[in-house]
Amino acid sequence: MEPYCIPPEMITTPPEDHLKKAIYVKHFNIHGGRVRPPMRYNKVGGGNLFLEYLMSVQGPQGVDRLMTVGFRPERGRDEDFSESILKRNILFSGEIYRFLGHSNSQLKERTCFLLNDSDEGIYELLAQFGEFSQIKTTAKRAKRIGLLFSSFDQSTILQDTQYDVIDDIKGGKYIFTDGCGFMSDSFAQEIQDVHRHLESKPCVVQVRYQGFKGVLVLNPRLNDGVQVQFRKSMKKFSIPDERVRLSCTTFGVVKCSRPYTMGYLNKQITMLLADSGVKHSYLRQLQNNFHIMLRELCSARQSAESYLCIKGEQKLLGWLHDFGLENPRLQRQLKALRAKEVRKMQKENADEDESSVTQTSRCKLRVLVPKSRVVFGVCDPFQSLEYGQCVFQPTLFDEEQMEGFQRAEEVIVVRNPCYHPGDIRVLKLIKNQPEYAYLSDCIVFPTKGRRPHADESAGGDLDGDEFFVSWDQNLIPSWRSAPFDYSSSSPLVMISNAFSHLGQWTNSLQNRISSWGCSNMPSVFGTAEEAERKKKLKERRHMLEYFSTYNNDLVARVDAIFMKYAALYGPSCQECVHLNRFFSDAVDMVAQKVFVQATLRNYERNYHRLVRDPLAARVDPVEWYRVWMQQKPPFNRGDDVWTPMEENTRVFVEEMSRR
């Protein structure tokens, strides 16, 4: 099979400062079956574990063996050529590049790394980082290998002698510290020193280090000898090659906790709040106030001042007080802030000219909640909090904001994406505890109770999940649902496990037969070396096929059908409860797409029948149980306040686009 050739006329030379002052990786976009010019050289701003290792072993020139390729379908066509192109390999300037891997975000973006090496060479190279072949399912194997390509903005050095691995805190079948370790005060200071945009030491950092993944929370009790304590749950794979492990001292910082990371209502949160008894009029009022604030941002001093205070824009607020609203420099900044807010109300595919995409679907509901933040969740370092309690200490701008926060006794906590009313948790605020004073701009969960609060909210954990937290008492639900049990086996997991067990059994049988045959009948079965080579090539082929067949549109399709039923019967209806399980098993959803597609077709047919015949007999035990147990009024058609609010977003975006 001839390799896929990059046309010579599209090949350009790298920037002059390549390998001198900066590092660049060559990149191509392939639309349909054709290379789309121009060829790019993407500057490596941060890095990833694989890239750092490659440069440490082979020097900066080792990057020239890498290439990234993005695959996009041709407009108006669904045909995907990525699998056939990758299986042919890519010929660039006389060198053959083969599929290497991808991060989780690259998978969704249809982008992957290629390496100038043989398939066996790539297998052996990845095996130095971990025994990935021991992971039975291709999807989970791809996820683990993806940690090698997960990018980070900043990095520092952590030696092998500077960290410990400590036990997790468990309760029943749950891990209360899942993904959350500790860092010393001096190490947090070191991270601030390398992170140019941090004004203070971070309380929480999301990290990548060797096979560890998760967050570290500041713990002043750690001494200078041990800089970091990882949890056992943070270790996703072990590096068997000691030479590789000792050379991988790069400590990658993915993200840090910051002040003023404002929270916004999206369609799902609005839906769940409305279904839980939050007044529709207040949700509409929040949206209306936000639109007015943006509309008048450049023309009304009060709106500008309110917005800048809420967002913590102290520098711009100083300009407003010193030079007035009409200052040209301030006006440019305000217009840029407003344009950014409006852009975030538009979906990423908003510029695609597709007749099937309605104007409303091009926009997404997004409403600023002044009394809210989006923050990392961490475990209680002192193990003092009880179930149902939390510590949350946001950075606030002035006395008025502080007084409003002090009056709050409870907060709502929810992780995105969320589709079940029980995903909205209401926790009691524990305040004025001196030992927690340093933990700002994060939410501290207890390590006690029947179940971790992070897991109760859409099946989250503490390895980097962020949570919408609001102390707006008007958003506290009137009706509180029990959290959904995300640990129960869904049809997707059961099917996936059945196939996995069957695959393990057949592979074991094949391996025993192959081993016997290689030993006793090499002329028929081949030698053990040939069998091992076939195994490596087969695994590489499976990884390539997983990437090329992955279709994130399936998640969007489940979301669309879920929203149809939610608008008809509310998110507590039995159809929505069943569909919610699909979101909690996103990896298995994509792996079992044939089963999911068949299920969705049935739901779509049933939905159209119900729309045509609104009086059709239908009994929903899930919804009526909630009504009977909690005196919750039944959902009526027209109660989907999120639908007109999304339409309001479209009207507002169109208005702003004409300015």
TrEMBL record:
Q: Name one GO biological process term.
A: siRNA processing
Instruction: Please write the reaction equations for the catalytic activity of this protein.
Output: RNA(n) + a ribonucleoside 5'-triphosphate = RNA(n+1) + diphosphate
Q: Where are the transmembrane segments?
A: none
Q: Which UniProt keywords apply?
A: Nucleotidyltransferase, RNA-binding, RNA-directed RNA polymerase, Transferase
Gene Ontology CC annotations of this record? nuclear RNA-directed RNA polymerase complex
Cite the RDRP core domain residue spans from the record: 62-597
Which Enzyme Commission number(s) are on file for it?
2.7.7.48
- The residue range of the signal peptide is none
Xref: Pfam families: RdRP
Enzyme class, UniProt record, top EC level: transferase
According to the UniProt entry, its GO molecular function terms are: RNA binding; RNA-directed RNA polymerase activity
Q: Which family does it belong to?
A: Belongs to the RdRP family.
Protein name, per record: RNA-dependent RNA polymerase
